[in-house]
């Protein structure tokens, strides 16, 4: 029996071979929260009949269903690659930098043909754990970021086809090393130069999936989601107003490269755990410095990422001891 609260919960995922055919979850995460909700579209026949003052229960039907919600977790130095592959929609290139160290490079790719199963163990008050198994899952969008003095976090927004509580709960197993990326490990370059006045950073990526592919003959279950528009890369960061580097880029609408790197513990051969996010063609949308009163002045900078025709619009490099996703 588990503890009868969220302390006794678990979360695992696995890549599916066939869309919406549940796979046994094998990669388990220490997560912060989840709100993966089963949604059903209900229609009620409103036919008139003598003496009938309320809609009849026999005329209520469920026409379509799906599952949506977020998974939130601290960014680990082990196991993150599987989520990044689903979020970016690509199989990464892999380089073995030295014995026991693997560098995975993710770029934006087509998410079609790539889905996963997630299983959440939800504890009841008495300690019984109810398995919530979600299949046909894709990442609709995600956020990666870090706050002042905080741990780097990820929020992955899920769009899925089905949910059941009838699948047996998988036995959770976790990496013996559970390091996390965090604020003290972070460094940012803007236009190729290191900057030391950035207080926080958030990257937001929208994958723009069509999640309403409902067709006759599918019993109200959606078909596999496809990219249905331009993807969106955006973000924000707060900077102390110590110079005019960011302000000048904003005023001139300069195309600017932004690179955020977290450098963690040494794995082997002098190589570190590392997470690097590169946006080579960003344009700033705000902020103009204003004087709010007697205090210091900060800049709340927002940006959009674009395709410059040469570089990948977004690259995430994940260096870890994981030999496989």
Q: Would you summarize the structure shown here?
A:
By secondary structure, the chain is mostly beta strands.
What does this structure look like?
- With 325 residues, the chain is mainly β.
- The strands form two sheets. It has a 19-stranded antiparallel β-sheet that branches.
- The longest helix is centred in the N-terminal third of the chain and has 9 residues, at 80-88.
- Strand 18 (256-268) and strand 19 form a beta hairpin.
- 5% of the residues lie in helices and 48% in strands.
- It has one domain (6-38, 62-164, 177-320).
- The chain has two helices and 21 strands.
- It has helices at residues 80-88, 245-252; strands at 10-15, 27-28, 33-34, 37-44, 60-74, 93-98, 101-107, 116-123, 129-146, 153-160, 162-164, 186-190, 193-195, 198-206, 209-210, 226-227, 232-240, 256-268, 271-286, 298-305, 315-320.
């Amino acid at each position: 029996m588990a503890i009868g609260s969220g302390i006794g919960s678990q979360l695992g995922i696995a890549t599916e071979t066939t869309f919406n055919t549940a796979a046994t979850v094998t990669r388990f995460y220490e997560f912060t929260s989840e709100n993966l909700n089963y949604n059903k579209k209900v229609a009620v026949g409103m036919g008139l009949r003598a003496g009938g003052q309320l809609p009849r229960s026999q005329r209520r039907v469920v026409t379509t269903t799906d599952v949506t919600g977020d998974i939130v977790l601290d960014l680990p130095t082990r196991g993150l690659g599987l989520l990044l592959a689903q979020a970016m929609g690509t199989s990464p290139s892999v380089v073995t930098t030295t014995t026991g160290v693997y560098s995975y490079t993710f770029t934006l790719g087509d998410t079609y043909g790539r889905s996963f199963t997630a299983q959440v163990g939800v504890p009841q008050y008495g300690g019984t754990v109810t398995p919530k198994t979600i299949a046909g899952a894709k990442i609709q969008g995600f956020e990666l970021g870090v706050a002042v003095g905080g741990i780097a976090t990820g929020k992955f927004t899920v769009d899925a086809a089905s949910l059941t509580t009838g699948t047996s709960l998988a036995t959770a197993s976790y990496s013996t090393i559970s390091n996390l990326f965090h604020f003290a490990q972070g460094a940012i370059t803007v236009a190729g130069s290191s900057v030391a006045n950035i207080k926080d950073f958030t990257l937001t990526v929208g994958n723009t999936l069509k999640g309403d592919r409902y067709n006759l003959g599918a019993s109200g279950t959606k078909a596999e989601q496809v990219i249905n528009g331009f993807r969106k890369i955006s973000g924000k960061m707060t900077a102390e107003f110590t110079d005019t580097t960011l302000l000048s880029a904003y005023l001139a609408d300069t195309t600017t490269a932004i690179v955020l790197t977290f450098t963690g513990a040494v794995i082997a051969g002098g190589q570190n755990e590392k997470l690097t996010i590169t946006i080579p063609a960003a344009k700033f949308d705000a902020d103009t410095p204003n004087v709010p009163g007697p205090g210091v002045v900060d800049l709340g900078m927002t940006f959009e990422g674009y395709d410059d025709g040469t570089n990948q619009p977004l690259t995430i490099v994940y260096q870890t001891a994981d030999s496989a996703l």
